[in-house]
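not sure who needs this but someone in the group chat was asking about DNA-binding protein from Aliiglaciecola lipolytica E3 so here u go. i didnt clean anything up, its just raw.
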Amino acid sequence: MAKYEWFAEIDAMVGHQYGRIYAWDKVNEAMVRQWCEVMGVDNPIYTDADYAAKSQHGQLVAPPAMLQAWCLAGFHDELAPGSTTDNPYGVLKLLEAQGYPAVVAVNCDLHFDRYIGIGERLYYTTVFDDISEEKTTALGTGFFVTLKMVFLSETGDGKDDEKVGEMLFRVIKFKPANPPEKAKPAGSDNAAPKMLRPKPGISDDNRFFWEGCDAKELRIQQCKHCEKLQHPPAPVCMHCHSFELDYKLASGKGELYSFVVMHHPHVPPFDNPNPIGLIELEEGVRIAAGLIGVEEDVSPKIGEAVEVEFHTYEGELTLPQFRLVSTKESS
């Protein structure tokens, strides 16, 4: 595919390495403890100094998955002192100027060279690694942009700083396939526009699922080769890697594996509070869906029985939602 004339500026940026972005704080026990509490991690090598001293590390270490967290910008996007002012995301601004305003993260691959100890000061540098040719996806038409961040620990003794890990981060910068309608001029229509539920991205891989919803059927992808189930739908079996896939009708019954209740912000047209559940179906797979019939002052309980109900919105979008069986029976 021929590239646009304006693409030459972006092509010239490929391979450019940007300056350092420092961590605000040295690796410290307080942040490690809080991260472990939030993530539900209870490995004592991260929080128990006596235990860690007897381990192969000889000291407390930070969870490897915290690598990116140490160098994040502040709440107002301010960077730590000494950080570069050269914006590694400048390529995204250039694409925006050419009519590609939307962005979605595609994937993020982390590699860890070693554990990080308490007291180390980290920074990372970014390389604009690659940009694809123009691609058309279900989201719209745009470019896949790949950035590579290399994380290092300062030695402080004049020697080369030590690489501790790296992250490959890819986004798609695109023109939406179905851009929102432009707002009408003030005074042209006093009625506020009705907010509609966002429609799912439908592809050849998941079409069967949404067609099943229209037919009031809960269809779960099944491999023809190993007969195992998986959800959400994918182009290949996650168990045996076969491409021969079909689906199985689920009973629609299961139990509440986990849930969250969104109180803020209030996003029309969703109800507020908005309970969302992770359902473990009788067939053994889990599916995220809205919970209905939940009383505002009564919290759902993990393990409660649920059953699917199909509800249609705006006359064309049918969604599987789950009702607590006890709530249904008492109503």
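also The CA atoms of residues 18 and 126 lie 5 Å apart. if thats useful
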